[in-house]
Automatic annotation (TrEMBL):
Organism: Sediminicola luteus
Entry-linked InterPro entries: AB_hydrolase_1 (IPR000073), AB_hydrolase_fold (IPR029058)
GO molecular function, one term: hydrolase activity
Pfam families named in the record: Abhydrolase_6
Record-annotated AB hydrolase-1 domain positions: 21-255
Protein name, as recorded: Alpha/beta hydrolase
SUPFAM superfamilies according to UniProt: alpha/beta-Hydrolases (SSF53474)
Amino acid sequence: MDVLKRNNVNIIGHGKQVLMFAHGFGCDQSMWRFVTPAFEKDYKIVLFDYVGCGKSDISQYREDRYNSLYGYAMDVLEICHELDLEDVVLVGHSVSSMIGLLASIQDQDRFRAMILVCPSACYINKNGYIGGFEEKDLHGLMEVMENNYVGWANFLAPVVMKNQERPELAQELEESFCSMDKEITGNFAKVTFFSDNRRELSEVKVPSLVLQCKEDDIASEKVGEYVHNTLENSEIYYMNATGHCPHMSHPQETIECMQKYLATIDNS
């Protein structure tokens, strides 16, 4: 199996320190394009698509592997192994925050730090925990997805993206949803929104940064603060950016937050 082909791995940049960018649900590596140029001079940048997303090899998709976030974490670790990457700073958007943390638990020595963009360890409200969604509402969203996929994408994209003054961003996200295999995307959605990784947070040992946006309907401030407070060694930066995709809607602020944090670990 050619892991690099499977995950459409691309390497850019001129530095030695590795920045590995992991995209969120329904996205692909191209959505980091507003951020990565700022780091090309000083970092080795690794970009990839999860199997079933972007230009990955869809023939490699196996439901038994990707029926939990651990399967996606295996993608991350296999790319690291194939490229012999060490001391990696993983930048994970949304669900990739948890995927990255799970990968770090399995092979801590591969990673130097995690930058978690709009993370959530559990999306469902339960037993006093506020994840942002009632379970029945998520089941309803999955039903809409199954019965009217285009309508689901049309509804969800602007909710995720916000920033209505830039409709082209929500349109790009909607088109990304619609370009992917409906069944694979549906499975990834269930794995994403019904996962509960709160317990695993206490097992993470690598330093982490939480980037928390305003008016994020997918991962609210309470959710980001829970992740920050539960992780052993983390910081949280509250951004002025709104929505769930600051690397697209507010790339300059995202870059500045990343640079600020990277400077602290570079000097440590």
